[in-house]
Amino acid sequence: MKIKLFFALFFSVYSNSDELVIFDGATLFSRDESVARKITGIGVSNGGFGIVLKSWAKWDTLSGTAESEFYQNFTDIEQEFENVIPKELIKRQKDEARAIRNEAGKIVPPLLAAVLNGNIPVSQIIHRLNGTNQKIAKTLEPTNLNQIMQVRKRVLALVKQCKDSGKRVLVLSGLHPEVCKQKREELFSDFGDDIIPGLDYDLNQLIHERGSDPKNCTFIGTRPRQTYPKSCGLQIINHQDGNPQLTINELKRRNFLQYKAAASSPQAASSSSASHT
Q1: Are residues 190 and 258 in the same domain?
Q2: N or C, which terminus of the chain has less Cβ within 10 Å?
Q3: How many domains, the chain?
Q4: Domain boundary among 148, 163, 184
Q5: 117 shares its domain with 50
Q6: Tens of pLDDT along 110-145?
C-alpha cells in the first residue's frame, strides 16, 4: 500500500513538474489616481493608465476620451522618432495576436509602447506633445510612476501563496524596468528573474527558458489581456478586479493554493493561516 502511495505521489509531482502559474501585472498593480492628479494637476476622476493605460474618463462628449487624444498625439509624432523605436516593437504592434494592449484591450501606439517599455525616455519626446498631454506624460516618468503604481495586496498574497505552495510562478509586471526594479526590491526579493520588467517580452521564450510547455501554463489576467496568452496556447483563469474571490476559488480548484506540508500543530496551522491572509 505504501509503495503504491509513493508511486502515485511521485508520478503526480513529476507530471506537474513543469507547471507554471503566470500572473499578469495588470491584476497585481493598480494606479493611485490621487497621486496621479497631484503630479499632472489635472482633475480627472475615475480614469488612469493602469499598466499600459486604462480608459480615461471623458472630459466631454464632443472631445472624446483623453486616452484617445493621448494615443493620437503619440501616433502623430511617431514618424519623428521611428529611428529610435525598436523595429521589432513596431512590427509587434501590427500583429493582432502579440500586440501590447491596454487594460481595455486596445493596441498601444508603438512610440508610447517604447516609452512604457523603457526603450525611449519620456523626456526625449514630451516636448512634442501638446500642453495637456505633456502634463499626462509626466506620470510616465519612472520616479512618478513608482509612486503611482500600487500593489493590490490581496492579489500579491495570492502570488506568494502560489509560490509558497511549491508552484512555479512568473509575474509579467508590465512596469517600466526602473519601476519594476524598485517593486522587486520592495515586494519580490525572492522572485529573482521570475518578475519580468517592461512590456515587450516573448511569452513562449520566457516559458521555454523555464523548462515548461505552454500547454502546462496557466495565465491569470482580465479578459482584454488574454489575446496573446491564448495565442500561445496557455490555459486561462479569467480574473475580475472587482471580485478576486473568483480567482481564489479557481486557484484552489486547480490545487495551486495548497501548501507544501501541513502544519505540525494547531498553533502552527493558525500561524500559517494568518501569514497568508
Answers
A1: yes
A2: N
A3: 2
A4: 148
A5: yes
A6: 999 999 999 999 999 999 999 999 999 999 999 999
Calculate the CA dihedral of residues 4, 17, 226, 172 and round it to 10 degrees.
Answer: 140
Instruction: Give me the long-range contacts of 121-128 (CB less than 8 A, separation at least 24).
Output: 124/81, 124/84, 125/77, 125/81, 128/77, 128/80
Domain that holds residue 96: 33-148
Q: Please count the helices (runs of H) and the strands (runs of E) in the chain.
A: 14, 9
Say if residue 207 is exposed, middle or buried (CB neighbours under 10 Å; 0-12, 13-18, 19+): buried
pLDDT digits (tens, 9 = 90+) for 231-253: 999 999 999 988 889 999 999 99
Cell for 179?
519601476
- For 12-95, strand residue ranges (E) read 20-24, 29-31, 58-60, 64-65
The amino acid sitting at 16 is: N
Tell me the chain's radius of gyration from C-alpha atoms: 21
CB atoms closer than 10 angstroms to residue 24: 23
14 and 112 belong to one structural domain:
no
First to last CA, the chain: 37
Listed residue (70, 212, 91) closest to 134, CA to CA: 70
In this structure, are 156 and 143 located in the same domain? no
